[in-house]
Structures
1.
Amino acid sequence: MTTGLNSAQSAIDFVLQLWQQHQGAISRALLANEADPAARQDLKQDIFLALHQAAERLQAAELPRAYLFRILHNVTVDHIARAQRHKWQPLDDEIQQNLLDACPSEQLDEQQQSQQLMQAVRRLSAANRQVILLAMEDLDAPEIAEILQISHGAVRVRLNRAKTELMELMQNGR
């Protein structure tokens, strides 16, 4: 019985370590998929709970980082589907811009560019958003293919489409 408890604790410790290692990537994915801070926090908790529930499988996975991103992807897709069913409305772009304009900061330009990029990423189709976010986290095509459960060729096609769509959104300033 003690061995089982030790194994479970070891798996939980592994998840905590993996969570800490990839906290930045998780935060960026959350920011790109959810504008509302409260909903983003709920999504973060859902992801952590899913990781905790899969702790032993995650620890035993051949590619734990890819497995983490698959869980992140699946929980995010579920969240987006729920949001569409409930017709939640994101914060109006004009209100967001007014809030940014009212924020005194030496880094306002950088913040505005980051905000524009996040707005553009949020406007990508779900498939393109997922693939571009994974690529932005330096995952290679085989890892992305494993996470999204699609072929390497499909990853390359989606990446090209996502980059084109993102460039158009950024150029149009939408």
2.
Amino acid sequence: MTEAPTYAFGLGARRGVAAQEVVELVRRVAQTHNVDLRDASLCALESKAQESGLHEAARQLNVELVFLPLAALRARKAPAATHSPRVQALFGVGSVAEAAALVGAGANSRLVAPRVTTPVAACALAKRADEDNS
């Protein structure tokens, strides 16, 4: 069994999001925070599992794509750094991207980068707790 990635990119996306939008956003956040994509995964809501743009983005970035249940995101919503009233009303969390990053990075993970948004997607970055020596 391979070790879990150190970083998790949490994604929020509108229906029909293009892979290139996600790829550019993830690369921008990774570059800003000096994260090697080989040590990262992409995490999104399980309701987005049919989004071909997310699957294609993960393929282009060569990273694992993990879909998470909404209940897990709601359980980690407190540490989110940003809050969207619209997202809160729809999903019960202030930021899907931030909650997905925190859940994807595991228990006691910490948010490295609050969500960065485009008109069609959002990306946040969390780091696994046991790699907290940076």
3.
Amino acid sequence: MGDGPKRRLPLVGGGAPGAAPPPSATAAPEKRKLPVLQGGGDEGEDRPPWHWVALGTVATFIAWLPLAGLVNTLLRRMLEGAGDAEAPARVRVAMVALNVVAFALAGVAGGYLVGRFGGRAGRREAAASGAVVATLAWALALAEGAPAGALGWALLLVVMVAIGSAASYAGGSAGLRGRSGGAPPTR
């Protein structure tokens, strides 16, 4: 392009070209807030209750994985300390008991999340998330192929679902008591 004189575009609503803008145009524009940050904190109200079953399931798995890793690390050290090729009965009982405690604590944590932040979701959805986690964990154990027989696997499923749903139900109840404002759902 040429080296000719540069033109200034007139301001919208302004007077003559090149004239000073009106005083209202020099004031800072009003600040606008993001609509996401203006919410009252009731984000859970928008989700249907069944969404919280999936969220509780994920939360329970996230809590359970580090707990199970810690428990099994401790159990491995107990087995190394035993020195025998066959684990003593007290170590086998500790293996089962500590893993049940880890699973129950994770269920309480996931159920608490559902109860505390679940909007219309309540104890029922918390218990359902614990049952889903138990069923998925059972299916993973079944896929590994540990020998237990059909009756053993069926009994294990019933026990795991009972522990998972009871722990998550208890966590959901505690979460409902911890809600700030608003009455908890009646379920």
